[in-house]
Design goal:
The chain is α+β, with helices and mostly antiparallel strands. It has one domain: Alpha-Beta Plaits, CATH 3.30.70. The protein is built from 6 helices and 4 strands. It has a 4-stranded antiparallel beta sheet with strand order 2-3-1-4. A hairpin with a 6-residue loop joins β2 and β3. The model has no long low-confidence stretch (mean pLDDT about 90).
């Protein structure tokens, strides 16, 4: 393995629901879904992408299964996308959602929009990745 240094600033805005998503159930649902054929990832190209570009290409194969298990999570994602004005994705098997931003200033802007639109018990946390 060769580390690929980040070429651009990268922040994430985490959306932390109060509910969890049962990992076992998500993986069992995933096993029932049709197999997707995904091409290999061009990691060197991905390492040079901006946050906006990454928001368009990041894929989580467990998302569809998690939304079957926890439909409320898809509803939260849809509401967050509308408020943020950008794509929102799920981490791992859920239930944390996130979107990427190219600067801490942009991440704080997205955080503000999310805080105004989402229920107050939902945690919104901007973090710097690189």
């Amino acid at each position: 393995m060769t580390p690929l240094p980040a070429r651009q600033a990268l922040c994430a805005v985490l959306i932390l629901p109060t509910q969890g998503c049962p990992t076992k159930d998500v993986y069992q649902a995933f096993d029932r879904l049709p197999i997707r054929d995904t091409p290999p990832t061009a990691w060197k190209k991905v390492a040079g992408m901006s946050a906006e570009e990454l928001n368009g290409v990041v894929v989580n194969d467990l998302e569809a299964a998690a939304y079957l298990v926890a439909p409320w999570l898809r509803e939260l994602r849809d509401l967050a996308e509308k408020a943020a004005g950008r794509r929102v994705m799920m981490t791992g098997s859920g239930s944390t959602l996130f979107t990427l931003a190219g600067s801490s200033v942009k991440a704080e802007e997205v955080k503000g929009r999310l805080e105004r639109a989402l229920p107050p018990e939902i945690g919104i946390v901007p973090v710097r990745i690189s």
